[in-house]
Design goal:
The complex is a heterodimer of chains A (342) and B (265).
Chain A lengths: L11 H41 L6 H26 L7 H17 L5 H24 L5 H20 L4 E2 L6 H8 L3 H19 L1 H11 L1 H6 L4 H27 L1 E2 L5 H14 L11 H20 L4 H30 L1
Antiparallel strand pairs in A: 1-2
Chain B lengths: L18 E10 L2 E11 L4 E6 L5 H8 L7 E6 L2 E3 L4 H6 L2 E4 L11 H5 L15 H14 L16 H14 L4 E5 L7 H17 L3 E6 L2 H7 L2 E6 L2 E7 L5 H18 L1
Parallel strand pairs in B: 3-8, 3-9, 6-7, 7-8
Antiparallel strand pairs in B: 1-2, 1-4, 4-5, 9-10
Helix pairs in contact in B: 5-6
The chains are: A mainly alpha (342), B alpha/beta (265).
Chain lengths: 342, 265
Amino acid sequence: MAGEVPRVSGVEERGQARRALAQVRVVGSFLQLRWASILVVAIALATYFAFANSAFLTGSNILVIASFLAEVAIITAGEVMLMVCGEIDLSVGFVYALAPFVMYFAWNDAGLPLSIGVLLALVASAIIGLVNGLVTVVLRVPSFVTTMGMAFLLYGLTLTVSGAFPVQTPQQNTRFAEVMGHGQVAELLWAVAVIVVVQVGLSYTRWGLYTISTGGNILGASEAGVNVGRVKIANFMVAAVLAGFAGILAAFRITSIDPTAGGFDIMFRAVAAAVIGGTALAGGAGTVTGGFIGALVLAILLDGFTLEGIEAKTFNMILGIAILIAMILNVTLQRRRQQGTL
Amino acid sequence: MSITGPGGGAASDGVVDPIRVEHIGKRFGAVVALRDVTMTLHKGEVLGLIGDNGAGKSTLIKIITGFHQPDSGSIFIDGVEMRLHSVSHARSLGIETVYQDLALIPGLSVYHNMFLKRERLFDPLPLLRNGQMKREARQYLHEMGVEVPSVDAPAAQLSGGQRQAIAMARAVYSKAKVLLLDEPLAAMGAKEGALILDLIGKLKERGDVSIIIIAHNYAQVLEVADRINLLRHGTIFLDKRAAETSTQELTEVVVEEYRRSRRSV
């Protein structure tokens, strides 16, 4: 879709300069196009399913999509920040499962107010992120490995403390529960709020600049005086807190707390959403909004094919193909970008 | 302390030299990188530091930027003897190094790169004043004659020459007093190289900054340098005004070096 660079005849030098310029422009528009193309894909999918199945555009189904979307989108927002600074967190799905148990035990066993329980759950999530960050940055274990270890550790921990049984989410019919995810659009509103805040953080604060710098050119960033270790550790904490928060919202939505919820499944969905949304796995580039649209695409696919009666196995194939296509685009773009600078 | 250069240097009529190193020695294990280097950078001048691979150029530069500490000798910054603990210490004294590849963040726009670590904010809000940074970057780059397609363009889309020019402009904009350019023209076409040489010329004209160019290719350095120091075997072998030497003379030195090396093999 990038098209051929027009051949310019005439003086060789000028031709070269113009070709280079044309290539820069092509790459530039391709970048924007790619961002827009994800949205186009989302709209095209929605249109297709709307025609294919009359149930798709009903209010109740849109709420189903929203609930598929919201939790993944919130986790994706944190994962995007982490991936932009050049790291990844494979343990987010298990923070998602553990956090509501922390809340539950604070309320049930320690007798604290539920809101304090939520707060403690988020603090616990932040500590997990801090540990991930410290092990990765200070002990220099690749984050892929650090967070994989953390994933299994948390999984075992959650199963142990819960006795492998789900519990009822407390205070189901309160206003608090409504706000915390039980209300029909509460989760979606939280997701939109998170996306706006994190995207503003990425685009309009120092924090975002340093995150992009750390992932894009870690030597250059630290040469310029950016504390790259701190940037990474804090983003690990952001990713974990958002995952824990998504888990709490889910607990209120579903009204029970399941020790096997989330896991690698929701983590991979978040990473896939980030990648489909244009976040570079190698770091240095990505948008939270893109990740949100990526999560939307996945939610529409999941819901649409469920309505069509396609089973989970097939859905995984479709998910796989979607990720492959996104990655091929990603790599192609990177190559073009390098050509543009040559 | 001594102010004049070690022979052949420009007269520095009472003006304090931004950098002077005296009798610097540095060894790494059994390898002697620098034997005895005395070198002066006068205010506002462009000094070309040339030498073969292994002559000690990069060691000397890393000592001046605080990355390595010398085993012997002393460093004077603005006439005051200093011990440079770290790169950031040297930077706080106004000594900035510009590397060709290291300098910019590919994913950030030109103006964000220009302002990295000295962002303008809407105080007390933590939000970036992008509009103002854009304007300042555009104006400053224009003044410097650095042409980019747009200050909004990510650095990844720029040519090597443009990136380097922006990195240099950034260093000067951040009030660097001494600019160390490490092989600024390596792997660069004639046109790109001309861009950098023009910028160096411009900086020299403005006179706010003194520059050391570390280079392999002395023909290009002679174009723009006021003075040439040739490093050989860990010591300054030749110190002349650029006008008083020539590519021929410098080639002679290097060729003779090769002859001797072959004989000794």
